[in-house]
Design brief:
heterodimer; A: 519 residues; alpha/beta; six-stranded parallel beta sheet; 23 helices; 47% helix; globular; B: 247 residues; 2 domains; four-stranded parallel beta sheet; 12% strand
């Protein structure tokens, strides 16, 4: 809301300019004049917008403290409430779409079976994909890891003398730290997805795989745009902001030297790359410049085009609760006079495929449904995880990249299992979270104090006499029981909750008193 | 039939009335119920935290205490979920495997095995919000889960509907986790408490006087949250209502 410095109605210069805005719907008028003295209560001064809480603090390889970052997110109640309600709304829309499809559970089972089939024959399908893509006139490259991916793309851009690159959203490029790398070699990257562009301009990672800026209020976006593209910092009207971003970004898109897309599905039978967007920005990225590079994780392969239908029916319904994305774009070969390159990236996927308990996490189609439904994620914000992948799927993928750094993440869950139930490819997410806890304990990636507490609990609980003595009275139970049942004592329990009221006697003593000494 | 009664540690220490109600209810329904004196815990707190090795001795003790019964029954969904689905720190002898399969949570035991027609002694003229714990809902399959496209069913509702006078109210997010999550409740205490506040507020907005559940651990957490933020709700285990508790 812009102020009017001319004060055409001759109002007092002592008033805050906001109170003078002519389009102020809250203003009270009497006899054609706006009431603006203290008693008029024409409008309260708008408080400063709540500051955006920032994500997890990263200290090199040290374990990310998700709980700390989540607590800071909850300490920003406007953000937390908006985030929880927005994502719960997506979950509800997803439920409505699900109920519209009688064969929903069969579709999930089918999608899971197709993915498992493909993953167990990944080498064959990758070869087939490569051969078909090449015969379509596409150049295919293989990258073992993030560094090789980044070098390969840089090489292609250098070959073409490209200095600027427009790209659509891709979690794989986030995994590869691609934007940072490009900045280091002097190539300008312009994200074309609105949410991703907001995050880029704010120098922040995406907080969600589908809606990357979902943790931001529009007032946060207004601040970012004011600093970067010169919008009015006090104007947080979404249409204004979207239009301003479009005006600023469109010329960059039209002038770009090269374009990049990610990939939702790579069809082996046709050698084509399929990208699903709601903004059409993948089409801009692929078609405006002459050079199109698609970065593809090797797990994105599906055997045949007919299989795509199964996933397209599930993807957007699960993600956003819409029947289909606005655009489902098939890129099969270079545009006329152009060049198309596909970079097939492993970056830890082959290794993950060999993990007996965790390989099915590769079925993931990055819909984000597990995040939307996760009660912990909704209240923590995606940036609290300090990792490329947040929410339930992040808990089971991130430790494969760095078990020490992400050792706390599998504990950021109540194991409620809602993630598993919404997953369109039936990944047993909460069981893998549980299995990761065991794995991390086995590999000594948990704090010593926790280890000591659990060892003590195990010893006490396996010795009935010692256990009985420890909880003989209610007071003793309060002192001892939460310490082992709840791991670190009453402090953490009692900070934000009341402790249980101690009863007169335990069940054990009641039983002895009422039913005799021995059965 | 001969039933071994398992009273989980936090019920033993903090909510003895839940253990008493379970015992009395099973006896009213004509069963021979034994409470093995040397019982402590099923091992879940250690196992859920990843410390499988540290729960082997506790699981072995559980197996010794509860061998030889026709059924083992516990008024706790999460403990039974542990015994049935994750109880693998101890050696998986034939006896242990059979014990795991014979261990039932009270609601499913009543609904699937005992199948009582009525609870004539029970009457509860109050507005009740049912809380299905996540373990009971999604692992023991007490009820239809809202994420799945499947027919509606609810074992606890089937039982409670045989009690005279209950007026059921439904919160806006009936299947949302309340945030207890075992060690999660202290490991991520801020998120846990926020989830609890939201849960009890949702039930209060729906008009509930009582939150009723088959899991005392969830109720212990929700009660602590409700008392802290001043939401006037009361909490009761389903065993107490089925056994005829008035309020």
């Amino acid at each position: 809301m812009s102020s009017d410095p001319a004060r055409p109605n001759g109002e007092s210069p002592m008033l805050h300019p906001e109170l003078l805005a002519r389009d102020d719907g809250d203003a009270v008028y009497r006899g054609g004049r706006r009431l603006d003295h203290a008693e008029a209560a024409s409008k309260p001064l708008r408080p400063q917008p709540e500051k955006q809480p920032r994500g997890a603090k990263i200290h090199g390889n040290r374990p990310v403290d998700q709980a700390d970052a989540a607590a800071r997110f909850i300490a920003a109640p406007e953000h937390e409430k908006m985030h929880d309600e927005r994502l719960w709304d997506l979950r509800q829309k997803r439920d409505r779409e699900m109920h519209g499809i009688a064969e929903w559970e069969e579709l999930r089972a089918l999608a899971s079976a197709i993915k498992e089939h493909t993953l167990t024959r990944l080498d064959e399908y990758l070869d087939q994909f490569e051969a078909n893509a090449r015969s379509n006139g596409v150049h295919v490259h293989w990258a073992r890891d993030a560094a090789e991916h980044n070098r390969t793309v840089h090489g292609l851009l250098a070959d073409h003398g490209a200095k600027s690159l427009i790209k659509s959203k891709s979690m794989l490029t986030e995994e590869c730290g691609f934007r940072h790398y490009m900045a280091s070699v002097g190539i300008e990257v312009i994200e074309t997805d609105l949410g991703e562009r907001i995050q880029q301009l704010d120098n922040e990672d995406p907080s969600h795989v589908v809606v990357p800026a979902v943790h931001k209020l529009r007032t946060d976006v207004a601040q970012v745009f004011a600093k970067t593209i010169g919008t009015d910092p006090d104007n947080s009207d979404v249409h204004y902001l979207a239009e301003a971003e479009r005006e600023a970004n469109r010329p960059l898109i039209l002038a770009a030297d090269a374009g990049m897309t990610g990939c939702n599905f790579a069809v082996a039978e046709t050698g084509s790359v399929v990208v699903c967007t709601n903004e059409g920005n993948a089409d801009l990225s692929a078609n405006v410049p002459k050079l199109h590079i698609a970065s593809v994780g090797i797990e994105k392969i599906i055997p045949r085009l007919e299989h795509l239908a199964v996933f397209v029916r599930l993807l957007s319904r699960s993600a956003l609760g819409s029947p289909i994305t606005q655009y489902t774009s098939h890129f099969r070969g270079p545009r006329e006079g152009g060049e198309m390159h596909i970079v097939l990236v492993d970056n830890g996927r082959s290794e993950r495929l060999g993990l007996a308990e965790f390989w099915t996490s590769l079925k993931c189609i990055r819909c984000g449904a597990c995040m939307n439904t996760c009660p912990v994620y909704r209240r923590s914000g995606g940036l609290s995880y300090g990792a490329t992948y947040s929410g339930p799927i992040g808990l089971i993928i991130d430790p494969t990249f760095n078990a020490r750094k992400y050792s706390n993440l599998p504990f950021a869950s109540t194991l409620n299992g809602s993630c598993t139930n919404v997953c369109p490819v039936k990944i047993n997410i909460h069981e893998q979270i549980y299995a990761w806890r065991r794995e991390l304990v086995k590999e000594h990636e948990v704090p010593f104090t926790k280890k000591a507490a659990m060892k003590a609990a195990g010893e006490l609980l396996s010795r009935p006499a010692a256990y009985r003595a420890a909880i003989a009275t209610a007071d003793a139970a309060l002192a001892h029981l939460p310490r082992f049942v709840l791991y670190n004592g009453l402090n953490a329990w009692g900070k934000n909750r009341e402790v249980p009221h101690p009863p007169k006697q335990t069940f054990h003593s009641w039983y002895r008193a009422n039913r005799g000494e021995k059965p | 039939m001969r039933i071994g009664l398992f009273v989980p540690c936090y019920i033993d220490a903090f909510f003895p009335e839940v253990g008493i109600a379970t015992l009395e209810l099973l006896e009213r329904l004509g069963h021979d119920v034994v409470y093995p004196r040397d019982q402590t815990c099923c091992g879940q707190p250690m196992a859920n935290s990843g410390f499988n090795v540290d729960c082997a001795a506790t699981e072995a003790l559980f197996a010794r205490n509860f061998s030889g019964f026709d059924y083992v029954v516990a008024p706790s969904g999460s403990c039974v979920h542990h015994v049935r689905d994750n109880f693998d720190a101890v050696e998986q002898t034939k006896e242990v495997r059979e014990l795991r399969a014979r261990t039932y949570e009270l609601v499913e035991f009543l609904h699937d095995i005992v199948k009582p027609d009525a609870f004539p002694w029970a009457r509860f003229p109050h507005r009740v919000g049912l809380h299905n714990s996540c373990g009971a809902l999604r692992r023991l399959r007490h009820a239809h889960a809202s994420e799945l496209n499947e027919p509606l069913f609810s074992k606890p509702m089937d039982l409670l509907s045989k009690v005279e006078g209950i007026d059921f109210v439904t919160p806006a997010r009936p299947d949302e986790c309340c945030g207890f999550g075992g060690t999660f409740s202290v490991f991520e205490e801020v998120v846990s408490a926020k989830m609890g506040y939201d849960k009890v507020s949702d039930h209060a907005r729906a008009g509930a006087e009582y939150i009723v559940s088959a899991d005392t651990s969830c109720l212990m957490h929700q009660q602590g949250c409700a008392e802290r933020i001043g939401v006037p709700l009361k909490f009761m285990h389903i065993a107490q209502i089925l056994n005829g508790a008035r309020a």
